[in-house]
Amino acid sequence: MLYLDRPAWPWRGRLWSHLISDVSHAELHAFAEALGVPRRGFDRDHYDIPAERFPVAVWLGAQVVPTREIAHRLRASGLRRPKHLHPRTPPRPDVPTAGVGGGWPVRG
Is 95 inside a domain boundary? Predict the structure, then answer.
C-alpha cells in the first residue's frame, strides 16, 4: 500500500509531502513514475512530492496519513533507511569522514 502525508514541508518556495510504500521500493518507484515524479525525488526510503501533485497521488490511490504514521509504517515494514545508515551519496575514498558509516568530510 502507498501512503502520503499532507504537504507541510517547505523547501525552495514550495510545500512537499512524503510518499512511501509499506510493500517494496519497487512498488514505490512504479507509483512515482505513474505520478510523473522523477527518480531524483527519491530520498532513501520515500519520495518528496510537491503540493501540486498531492491531489493526483490521492486520486491514483495513495492513502493520506498523519506525518508520524509515515515513519511508523516504514519502520514496521522494514523499509526504513535512516540517513545516518544510508547517506545519499557514498563517501569518497580520498576524503576522511567523521561518524559511523561516512558523513561530512573532516576539515582541518
Answer: no
